[in-house]
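Just scan this pair:

***
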Amino acid sequence: MGTPPKNTFTVERDRMLALKSELMKRLKKLERERTSQFGLIPLRDSDSSSGSTSDQLVFISSSDDDNENIEDSGASFFDSIRHTESDGVEKFPSPMSKARTIHDKVDAKSIIVPRRKNKVGLTIRIVLTLLMGYFDVITDFKVAYMYYYNRQFVVAYYIAGFAVFTLLIQAAVTIQQHKQKGWAECYGRALIALLGGAPIMEGAAVWIGKEDPTLLFPPTVMFAGIKGIEVAFEAVPGSIVQCLGLLSARRNEVHPIQIVGLCSSIFCGAFVMTDGNFGFICGKHRASPNDPYYQWVPNTPALSTRLMCKFGMFLFFVCYFSQFVYTMSIFVDAFGFCLAGQALAAELALLCMYKAYKGELCGVSILSHPTPLTNYVLPFLLKMGYYVLVCACPMLITAAPCELGPEVFAAIIVWRLSTNGVVSYVAISSENYHCDHMHNMSSQQGLIFNAVTLSGALIGLRLFFKNCCKKFNVSLFWKPKSGKEHIESAWRDPEVWGSNMNPVKTKDDDYWEWAILLHPTYLPLEELTSWLCYRLVKKYADRTTPRPSWMSGYEEIVFIKRILTIYNWKGVNEEEAQRVDDALETLFTSKSPKDLEWAWSGVGGGGAAKFRFFEKVKPRKDWLWKRRKVGSSVWESFMT
């Protein structure tokens, strides 16, 4: 006869007991690892009365008791169990669902409180960044005026044009940042940005540290973006034009302001990118201290180690930027702007073809509404901007799979360092080289300059890697990482996202943060649907449970718009759209068509609409998002 099968209750009870044991083991392991690796001090009952404090991050106990935590974990566990199939065989939950359950337990028991902000260090960094930026802009205008006074109008127009174009882009970004505050304040800030005041405004917002929900980006991201725009659209092309004019001038015609202007562009770009890299990575490291990619930040309290790590990166950027500027100047003088632009466009085209092959061409880290501009134009512009930055001053944040990716990031750097000397030698040796004045450099002098800058770049890399965190895996800077691996580590992995910066955050807050930070290209639609249609509806449908801030007031509208943005990006069928629409209807019954005019689909036309929120319900048909077979290989996209 055999042993009779266990009933459903017995199976679920055994799973819960095994899961509870696994949870406790993982929790103890995480606590030991964080304590030993990051200097975190777990607060025990015996420590609570001692009154001791520490500058490091500390664990604090949650207000929820153990029973509520276990019940919450069990609920999410049972929610992940699939219904039985027609043959009576029940599907077991995936390892990822168990990881999410473990993540729930970790969030409930140990929450990390960030250390107090160091206003002195922050003030010094902001002031230095602003001073170097404005010094670079002022010297560029002075150099442009000098060329204009000497009747070299083309060079003057190029230098001034790059600076004005940078101000226009900063003004446009400022309008998008503050458009929710009204047109008067929005255009007032845009006028200040046109006058060159955008870095001061955003630097002051970073120093104050007040989060405004009406802003499009956080102040730190906006400030970094403003400075990145200066480097990409003003420092890089402006320095190339200035270097070209400097190499084409006679020795007695060289003015000191030309040398100062060129050096200011190079050093300003290197300083801004060094500070931006450390600022970005330190913020990411505090938010997810166990993510291996963000562990290169020195974890030692020794100031000399941190300074040497920053100096190594700064030295690498200065030498790398100088070599790129010199090579491009020689190449432009020998073959013209047209051929130089075609060469860069060919490299960018190869990059885009590779990203399209991986299905990540239109993936960006900005959650934007699905329009033709954001679907096709914005991702390409971001790829182009990141490509220019990596050619001049690499930004480590561009190594994310939704941007350039670590393998592309490393390949561009190695390609530039290995070919700059060859390109400059060929350009100087060509018959088209036009610099016939006393400042002309021979082929041997060009090779010497490239050898010196290459040596300086390698020394900077050596100092950087020697003084960064000892436990950091250097191969992460060039090891390929797909969008699927990226989302696995960011959405589900409790080892990465097992901590919070805000002590009142919950698991739902984390899920929503991930939906904001990650582009819809990499969001698992099944996970998001389960979270929205089951967990949120079960928890907040009766309106008796206190809601988080992002589900009330103005943030309620933002929540609905972002949810619809994600599903419109991904493309859903009618059944799934109806389920999501019903969930939104249950959670938000007070919203009117005027509040959600862009997403409303039942106004006018053929009577009542079947869907209240969804404007269109149809899957994507674009070749960029579909799987395509080429021979035996499969072109996979994460938008299907």
Observations:
- Confidence is low (pLDDT under 50) at residues 36-117, 495-504, 591-609, 616-640.
- Residues 415 and 604 are 58 Å apart (CA to CA).
